[in-house]
């Protein structure tokens, strides 16, 4: 059996139950008869040989060990993963009323470092981002089928993070049948088509569920304010980095008069357009005369052009891709976030609303707020913070693993 001896003085991270061990904390690894299989189970002990934790060992990764358990009695076997997976699925049961697009397992937060599982209706999509998840992949797949009663698992272990782990990219059917080109899911009464083979992440931004709902509610409130005579004119929404139109559909369903959706991916826009078409026949019937525009453009150029044309919006969503993949990119990323936010603020009507996001793990909640505050100042506008935004409850963060927090956002009102 593999045993990692942790250096004296490095036990603190165990006291804090942090799930990652870097090479600098390891004194030596014993039991290496042959080169270890990546992801093999390892016992961690302190300098005096006392048990600390069980983990998965990967000598090709800077994240040398990811911890499974701090309980010495726990046996790391198929049953262990079945229990953890069943618990993770059970925690999401309450969300099923709202949606059949759910994140069932979210890595470290569910005690399963490196494993991500999303469900789209009757299709499961699994992502293994660590050697440990890879090593137990078959057992995890069996456990997923057993606890959901489903038959189909598609694997999307194609995230760049795998390269840092020294793992090859892998994609394809893991259990059951090939997924269809588009799976229809229903969230808060709205239909979204998801392409699990080619879409981003596992096909859809499941994490934005609550914020899509918020956009729906805000657009309804704006309509009510207009009905009460507090606003006038058509209700216009601009969705920047719209991907397949998640926020656009929420705004349209809530009755926005005009929704302009901008993305640089023609495929994503085409899916967005199809997604809206699916909803046209659903009740309640769409508001007559809605203007729906899908624009294949670079958002930075769009915002400039719209300012030149003196366009104004009631609500703008900014949900750009991860500008800072690591701390090295912070300066450049901060400038990009600031430019976007500055221009979006200037494009808002008085009392218009901005939902602005960053999904860069390297950009903290604090830093993001500072960047946006800088944009408010430089835009020469006044703004109120109405709400802080985050991923849905199926994307929790373990309190012992703050690195797990990635999606952050602010809801601002320009005044
Ligand atoms: N808001 C989306 C997710 C956005 S993901 C949702 O809720 O579903 C980021 C998107 O930004 C991707 O679809 C990508 O194609 C797009 N993108 C990246 N850079 C862009 C740019 N400069 N201009 C326009 N779109 C861009």
Structure in words:
With 415 residues, this protein is an alpha/beta fold. It has 3 domains: 68 residues, Archaeosine Trna-guanine Transglycosylase, Chain: A, domain 4 (Roll); 104 residues, Transcription Regulator spoIIAA (2-Layer Sandwich); 209 residues, Vaccinia Virus protein VP39 (Rossmann fold, 3-Layer(aba) Sandwich). It contains 11 helices and 20 strands. The chain has a 7-stranded mixed β-sheet with strand order 16-15-14-17-18-20-19, with helices on both faces. A 6-stranded mixed β-sheet has the order 2-6-5-4-1-3. A 5-stranded mixed β-sheet has the order 7-8-9-10-11. α2 crosses α4 and α6 packs parallel to α7. The longest helix is centred in the middle third of the chain and has 19 residues. The N and C termini lie far apart (64 Å). The mean pLDDT is 96. The site of S-adenosyl-L-homocysteine has 20 residues, from α7, β15 and α9.
Supply the number of helical segments.
11
How many domains? Answer: 3
Radius of gyration over C-alpha positions, nearest whole angstrom: 23 Å
CATH architecture of the largest domain: 3-Layer(aba) Sandwich
What class, by secondary structure content? alpha/beta
CATH class of the largest domain: Alpha Beta
The main sheet comes to: 7 strands, mixed
Considering the protein shown, what is the CATH homologous superfamily of the largest domain?
Vaccinia Virus protein VP39
What small-molecule ligands were found?
Answer: S-adenosyl-L-homocysteine
In the CATH hierarchy, the third-tier topology of the largest domain is known as Rossmann fold
Task: Report the span from N to C terminus.
Answer: 64 Å
Strand content: 25-35%
Please, what is the average pLDDT?
96
Got a strand count? 20
Contiguous uncertain segments of 5+ residues: none
Strand order of the largest sheet: 16-15-14-17-18-20-19
Helix content range of the residues, please? Answer: 25-40%
